[in-house]
Amino acid sequence: MTRYIHLFFLLSFSLTSFAQNPLGRWKVITEINEYQGEKFDSHKALLAQRPCAAGIQYVINSDGTYRLDATQSGCDEKYKKIQEKLYSESVWTVSGNIITIGHKKAPSVGQKYKFTMTGKKMVWVGIEGQGTITYQKI
Fold first, then answer.
1. Residue 13 lies inside a defined structural domain of this protein
2. Is 114 domain-assigned?
């Protein structure tokens, strides 16, 4: 009987771990921030200025790297190079339901978010006041 209970907990843990796997290509759907008590969607504001940003992808790789891929976005070359350089040394780690985006020279120092995944959506809620980012898997 205890063997079945252990098996049940092992399978439950495995399924939970699998469900919270952020690997892959993602696009931002919304980025809700707050300033002086007012909430706003900074991604919507970005798209109003640069509609091509809708084609930007964020790539979470199994080697621990976190990259912005603007190659298929249709944005001008200068903008693509600047954006991709900003993420060229970014890394990610997960501990439980906390994802940290840091720099390869200081991976534990960076932005920390509580993340959840449902279907093809992933939501990051900043634990240090960074707002909420919703991604859609591509």
1. no
2. yes
Task: For 20-77, write each residue's pLDDT tens digit.
Answer: 799 999 999 999 999 999 999 999 999 999 999 999 999 999 999 999 999 999 999 9
Domain CATH for 59: 2.40.128
Containing 43, the helix (H) or strand (E) segment is: helix 42-49
3 phi/psi in degrees, rounded to 5: -60, -40
Would the CA dihedral through 121, 45, 132, 92 be positive or negative? positive
Q: Name the nearest CA neighbour of 56 among 32, 35, 83.
A: 83
pTM of the model: 0.83
In a domain, 8, yes or no: no
Domain coverage including residue 110: 22-137
Read off the amino acid at residue 37: G
Q: Are 122 and 132 in contact (CB under 8 A)?
A: no
